[in-house]
Amino acid sequence: MNKDNNDTSKIIIRNIKKTFERKGKKSKEEEFLAIDNVNLDIYNGEFLVILGPSGCGKSTLLDIIGGLSTPSKGEIKINDKIVDGPGLDRGIVFQQYALLPWRNALHNVTFPLESHLDKKECEKISKEYLSLVGLSGFEDRYPNELSGGMKQRVAIARALAIDPEILLMDEPFAAVDAQTRSILQEDLLKITENNKKTVIFITHSIDEAIFLADKVAIMTARPGTIKEIVNIPISRQHRFKTDFKSSTDFARLRHKIWELLKEEVIKSQEIKENKLEFETSIEKGGGI
């Protein structure tokens, strides 16, 4: 997808800030700032990957876009409408599958459809999307009978079944092995390209980000904000070539992204170490 081909902003994120209160504490002094002054424009049909150190607020931002959490400040608009809760325009895929163990693959996919469609139509649509993700013939299998990769395919089919304009994916391939991950990455690119979805995808993997993204948003250490946007000027068709990940283009992008990310990873580690030192001192009744 190229912005020049369609410069319509699907998602507009402006001045997003999110604070949380520390568990069991009520004073404002005990609040901590998770993300601050986040601004992004995601264009129609674009594949945006968000990359950042652990604890920088990537999932927090995705939850706000998904309507699962409200910002402390700022607003998000989708198609010029302010996000104030979940909606069928957004499908969400989580890292841990979130499948219902008492339902088979087919009826996990029908679940979000059942409130507004009859049983026959639900099952028809669900079978189509299970086929799309390569699971024809596995409709009757329960989650405990499926591999990790197959479970995630069911989760993707469920998210796609509501025909959302936007797909939100929170480290969806982190729990599967490397070979399965590569296959799922390729399948996801094909599916989202063919179905013209706008995608926001969270990962810790630079290689995964380069392979999937039209652009990569680098987040800072907490409080997370957007440090820089890196465009990936490589066609999706070219990415399927076997030598892509060993190409000079890939190496150049990897180096650029790591140089931007490395400083934030170091800062994030320092924040964790300082927090641990502070908590240890408090437990001992001392001070810093």
Key traits:
single chain, 288 residues, alpha/beta, Rossmann fold, 2 domains, six-stranded mixed beta sheet, 10 strands, 37% helix
User: Which superfamily, in CATH terms, is the homologous superfamily of the largest domain?
Assistant: P-loop containing nucleotide triphosphate hydrolases
Compute the number of strand runs: 10
Mean pLDDT: 88
Number of domain units: 2
Q: Could you estimate the helical fraction of the residues in percent?
A: 25-40%
- The structural class is alpha/beta
Just give the CATH class of the largest domain.
Alpha Beta
**Largest sheet entry:** 6 strands, mixed
Named CATH topology of the largest domain = Rossmann fold
Low-confidence sequence ranges: 278-284
Strand content: 15-25%
Biggest β-sheet: strands ordered side by side in the sheet: 6-7-8-3-9-10
Rg? 20 Å
Oligomer: single chain
Distance between the termini: 51 Å
**So what's the overall shape?**
globular
Give the ordered list of helices and strands: EEEHEEEHHHEHEHEEHH
Keywords: ATP-binding, Nucleotide-binding, Transport
InterPro entries: AAA+_ATPase, ABC_transporter-like_ATP-bd, ABC_transporter-like_CS, ABC_transporter_ATP-bind, P-loop_NTPase
Domain ABC transporter: 11-242
Protein name: ABC-type transporter, ATPase component
